[in-house]
Design a protein that fits this description.
Helix content: 55-70%
Largest sheet: 5 strands, mixed
Distance between the termini: 66 Å
Number of helices: 19
Number of strands: 5
Strand content: 5-15%
Structural class: alpha+beta
Shape: elongated
């Protein structure tokens, strides 16, 4: 935020300074208004440039914070992620991405203060070791109390086997470094994803495997979510399905999103009757879904403090999140449509006298399709375009009829009708009498 603030404010002010800096014809010593304002602007620019330079010095730390956020909490949208990564020059290469967790055997909750400090020192030491041995040191991060995370990438976006093979090789290389320092760890690996935006899902998988692994599991050294999940009956919650739910919610289609989610819930909870372990994995993925739907809420974002949910409570929370984001989307959409409709009404009010004003010309003027505008008039305004235009023209014509200096033909033309016959017919249809009779009765 500081980066954007400093850049967004300094640049326009710099341009303003250039515009205001003009040669003065008079050599007078008195400070001109231009000089005074220019000096004030330059001081403001200087303060913004100072902020930007301070932020620039810490850009690497901000970059690390960006990766931490990407992995542990995710972003609200790919657009938000891409704009920030582009500015920080932290875009991940195209390919497959996944999270590898380097896990220590200690449990901080069971330690006294002194031992906890030693464990913390050990973890930070290991973090420095692996960063110094890595071509991408910023991909390593201190994620949890007893884990270090690593974003592992391959340049192939489809070859999952290659990703797992290279990930295993990288783990073996790091293990050799750690063994030289008598440091024993075990590794957990989340599934790779095609989009960096979904890295949080891979992290949650690796984290959950770490928490659920038995001592026997840990002896294997490397535990992959893919294999760990297959040991028991799988639940069904593919990434494509989650993305579809998010899209439906954010587009305001709550009813369809609700229907699809409840079908998936019934399948996993009632029909499959998945094990307690699989249930925990399933609920974990639903927490991730809530994070995507409610990015401003940290209630479920910190994995270390996730409550043990009753399945029915989690179901209600997902439905509430879908409903809230859908309602918000509909309100935003309605606000945009209301503003557009108001602009359309103003345009018609100003141009009703143009006999060439049609739905087609209106669509060109507002760069909207005729079908969209027709639907908007009917659904939001309550009447179709031509009925609205006719009402405006006739309303104006009744005012003009009070001006006895105008002929009926002139009233028709000033009201937007191309000929008096069409005007007379429309007037009588709506008013029940002719324009001439209306004028005589006034």
């Amino acid at each position: 935020a500081a980066i954007y603030f400093s850049r967004a404010n300094a640049d326009p002010l710099r341009h303003l300074s250039e515009k205001l800096t003009v040669p003065q014809e008079s050599p007078s010593r008195r400070v001109s208004p231009y000089d005074s304002l220019n000096r004030a602007v330059e001081q403001i620019i200087s303060s913004k440039d100072t902020l930007e330079s301070i932020v620039a010095r810490h850009k690497s730390k901000i970059g690390e914070a960006y990766y931490y956020r990407l992995v542990k909490y995710g972003f609200e949208s790919p657009g938000e992620m891409n704009s920030l990564s582009s500015y920080l020059d932290k875009e991940l290469p195209r390919g497959l991405y996944g999270i590898i967790l380097l896990n220590f055997y200690f449990e901080p909750a069971d330690m006294d203060r002194a031992i906890m400090e030693e464990a913390r020192t050990l973890k930070l030491t290991v973090l420095e070791l692996v960063r110094s041995a890595s071509p991408n040191p910023s991909y390593w991060m201190d994620l949890d109390s007893n884990s270090i995370g690593y974003i592992f990438c391959t340049d192939s976006s489809e070859d999952r086997e290659l990703w797992f093979s290279r990930a295993t090789e990288e783990i073996g290389r790091i293990n050799q470094i750690l063994f030289r320092h008598d440091i024993n760890v075990f590794w957990t690996v989340g599934d790779p994803v095609n989009e960096a935006y979904n890295l949080n899902s891979s992290y949650l998988q690796a984290r959950l495997v770490m928490e659920e692994s038995t001592e026997e599991d840990k002896k294997r050294g490397v535990i992959c979510y893919e294999n760990f999940s297959l040991e028991k009956e799988q639940y069904n919650l593919p990434m494509e399905f989650l993305q579809k739910l998010i899209l439906l919610g954010k587009s305001g289609n709550y009813e369809l999103a609700r229907e699809l989610f409840l079908e998936n819930w019934e399948e996993n909870i009632k029909k499959k009757q998945i094990s307690a372990h699989m249930l925990k994995l399933y609920l974990s993925d639903l927490r991730g879904l809530i994070n995507r739907l409610r990015p401003d809420s940290m209630e479920f974002s910190d994995y270390d403090h996730l409550p043990e949910e009753e399945p029915s409570l989690m179901k209600d929370r997902v439905l509430a999140a879908l409903e809230n984001v859908s309602r918000s989307s509909q309100e935003n959409k309605k606000s945009i449509q209301d503003k557009l409709l108001e602009s359309l009404y103003d345009y018609i009010e100003q141009n009703y006298a143009d006999p060439n004003l049609t739905l087609s010309s209106l669509s060109r003027a507002f760069n909207r399709s005729e079908g969209y505008l027709s639907h908007l008039f009917k659904q939001q305004g309550g009447e179709n375009f031509y009925a609205l235009l006719e009402r405006n023209r006739l309303s104006k014509s009744t005012e003009l009829l009070d001006d006895m200096s105008l002929s009926i033909n002139e009233v028709a033309l000033k009201s937007g009708y191309s000929n008096v016959r069409t005007y007379r017919r429309a007037f009588k249809k709506i008013k029940g009498i002719s324009p001439t009779e209306y004028r005589e009765n006034r």
